[in-house]
Write a structure and sequence with these properties.
Layout (H helix, E strand, L loop, with lengths): L6 E2 L4 E2 L9 E13 L3 E14 L2 E15 L3 H13 L16 H18 L6 E5 L3 E2 L6 H13 L3 E6 L5 E2 L2 E2 L11 E6 L8 E2 L1 E7 L7 E6 L4 H14 L2 E2 L2 E2 H10 L3 H14 L10 H6 L10
Parallel strand pairs: 3-6, 6-8
Antiparallel strand pairs: 1-11, 2-11, 3-4, 4-5, 7-12, 8-14, 9-10, 11-13, 13-14, 15-16
Helix pairs in contact: 1-2, 2-3
Length: 302
């Protein structure tokens, strides 16, 4: 992005909840490293779809799917998953495969896109909530696939709303979600002047969403191909059909919770692969602590 061109309109878009019945659905996925073997590493991937209708929450969990990744099999595993999810390869713009350290996140992204695509083809006159932005052109967000998901949703009069828990976008040197405005929520502030660097493409218009009282606000991307009136109506239907606290929809919060792994689940999966698959997990020492003692920060903090 070109931060010097990014600005927020100071005039807010004031919102009023619409309580007509409308389905709200959300998608999220997660991945975790179970352990290492002499040949590679074991990971697990899980996803969740959550939807609210008639004041009730329902959900479907997918996984956990456990994979033993090695340098020898990683490309084949990734290609098979791509074909299984999307029939044809949907790789990044360079046609390359991720390296083994990138594989867990990329496999979780494949599952997430598949779940998103499934909702976009089945939900009518609703709102689908994504975790993240509508920026495409990266390895885990192929432009053709995101365009297809948005187009399928539009055909069914459904709007995609993408909430980002974190953003690097700044206006006047400050994160857009940190800027203080003296307006009474709920409201949206539209971001203008954004110019992503190729190959990235913005498929949504970007807003700052402050939906409840308090200090929390989120970046919200809404499908660029629909009129501003439809964008506003979609957010108002979300407010009228879902519980929102700390400016964040409960449906999306539940999707995140339901796909996250607990410590007990990791232990159970480790036991499963050692007993059923005959794999031996290696207990590698923490080199940071070994070398630096109390000053070692650990491998995930380096």
């Amino acid at each position: 992005m070109h931060p010097q061109t990014l600005q927020l309109r100071t005039q807010p878009i004031l919102l009023k909840p619409r309580h007509e019945e409308s389905m709200v659905a959300a998608v999220d996925t997660s991945t975790i490293k179970i352990g290492e073997t002499s040949a590679g590493m074991l990971i697990a991937v899980r996803g969740a779809n959550v939807w609210r209708q008639n004041r009730n929450y329902r959900y479907m969990r997918f996984g956990p799917f456990i994979f033993h990744l090695t340098e020898e099999n990683k490309n084949d595993v990734y290609a098979v998953l791509q074909r299984a999810c999307f029939e044809t390869p949907r790789g990044d713009s360079h046609g390359s495969f991720p390296n083994i350290l990138q594989m867990p996140m990329r496999m979780a992204s494949l599952l997430e896109r598949w779940l998103q695509a499934m909702l976009s083809r089945t939900i009518s006159r609703g709102q689908i909530l994504f975790d993240g932005s509508l920026t495409s052109g990266t390895g885990d967000a192929p432009t053709s696939l995101i365009r297809e998901i948005l187009a399928n949703a539009r055909k069914r009069n459904t709007t995609v709303l993408a909430f980002s828990k974190m953003t690097n976008l700044r206006a006047n040197g400050q994160l857009i979600t940190d800027l203080s405005f003296e307006h009474k929520p709920p409201y949206l502030l539209e971001a203008i002047g954004m110019r992503p660097k190729p190959p990235m493409i913005l498929l949504g218009d970007v807003f700052v969403a402050k939906l409840t009282k308090g200090s929390y606000a989120f970046r919200l991307d809404i499908d660029r191909e629909i009129a501003i009136e439809q964008k506003i109506e979609a957010v108002e239907r979300l407010l009228g059909n879902d519980s929102v606290s700390q400016s964040y929809p409960e449906t999306l919060r539940l999707a995140h919770i339901l796909c996250t792994f607990t410590a007990n689940e990791v232990i159970a999966m480790q036991h499963f692969v050692t007993m059923k698959c005959g794999l031996r997990l290696l207990n590698r020492p923490d080199m940071h602590k070994l070398l630096f003692g109390p000053f070692g920060r650990g491998e995930y903090c380096s």
